[in-house]
Amino acid sequence: MIRMTVLGILCWVHAAAAGTHKLHFFGVATSEGTGFPEYVAVEMMDDVQITYYNSTMKKPIFRTDWMDEAKGREFLETLTPYILSGHDIIQQSLRNTVQHFNHTGVHTYQQVGGCELHDDGTRRSYLSHSYDGKDFISLDVKTKTWTAAVSQAVFCKHKLEADAAFLQITFNYHTQVCFHLLEWCLQYVMETLQRKAVPAVTLIERKARESAGTDVICHVTGFYPREVEVNWIRDGEALLEEGVWSGEVLPNEDRTYQLRKTLTVSPEDQNKHSYSCQVDHASLDEKMDVKWGKRERPWY
Predict the structure, then answer these.
(1) Alpha carbon distance 97, 33 (integer Å)
(2) Do residues 100 and 167 share a domain?
(3) Residue 234: which CATH number?
(4) How far apart are CA 123 and CA 75, in angstroms?
């Protein structure tokens, strides 16, 4: 059987699943005495959780139905040594930092890292640590060097760079293993990635908090893929920016997304103009316009 090269896999993956995709992890170690596990880690593909692990468990668990049981087990076996290694180094980093500063009480040490594949085939990998929620130190994967975000983290930089074994494991993961696992994931989620879900749009009206006007919230939900353009339009032609506030695109539990975009309209403008929330998405043949205004009520 002919084996696909890494480049061949990448070309196939990007042709079938355009856009940026990432495999990323979050880990946090907490001081003893909180009643919570001393270490918790999750691995995500884009916005969907794949694995979960905490320090009371012997090994991580798989949390997705994308792959069959055999493939999921193989995926987890590949990833598990890196999750357990991360557990060891982050808990040790927390202990070293607490001792270095002679701190008492509850403290946390976090790591965030992973890899990304972009449309044009470029790759990016990253790893950073935080202490008590503030940037502490980060790894430059290309040069295998750590950069202290604050002067107090220099001691940690020296300790991590002196650990050649850990540095090699970390480098291998971020330059090879992470991308291999991400490509693997993408091959098994093509059906999910290629599907399109049409957004549902609802307009919600409320009194503005800081003026005599009205806030009109355009709530767009249930769409897939993630990319969406939502704009407020006045009198059918003027794209509005002033008086408009946009929330972030957030995931729903069913793997679709939602977004809210709020327009504040003064009492005077309510009587002069009509407004519409315009939505452009890959699932739509043409832009969707949902109207609001004195001339169009009730909206539809």
Answers:
(1) 17
(2) yes
(3) 2.60.40.10
(4) 21
Among 140, 162, 193, the domain boundary falls at 193
Tokens 């884009």 appear where?
Answer: 46
Predicted model pTM: 0.65
* Whole-number Å distance between alpha carbons of 24 and 178: 9
| Residue 268 main-chain phi, psi, to 5 deg | -65, -45
Cβ pair 292, 277 in contact under 8 A: yes
Whole-angstrom Cα distance, residue 120 to residue 212? 49
Whether the per-residue pLDDT at 237 is higher than 50: the answer is: yes
Q: Which helix (H) or strand (E) holds 11?
A: helix 6-16
State the residue range of the domain holding 65: 6-193
Q: What is the pLDDT of residues 146-200, one digit of tens each?
A: 999 999 999 999 998 898 888 899 999 999 999 999 988 887 766 665 778 999 9
Q: Are residues 171 and 253 in the same domain?
A: no
Question: What are the DSSP E strand ranges found in the chain?
Answer: 21-30, 39-45, 48-54, 61-62, 108-117, 123-131, 134-140, 145-148, 200-207, 214-223, 228-234, 238-240, 244-246, 250-251, 257-265, 274-281, 288-293
Q: Is residue 234 domain-shared with residue 287, that is, in the same domain?
A: yes
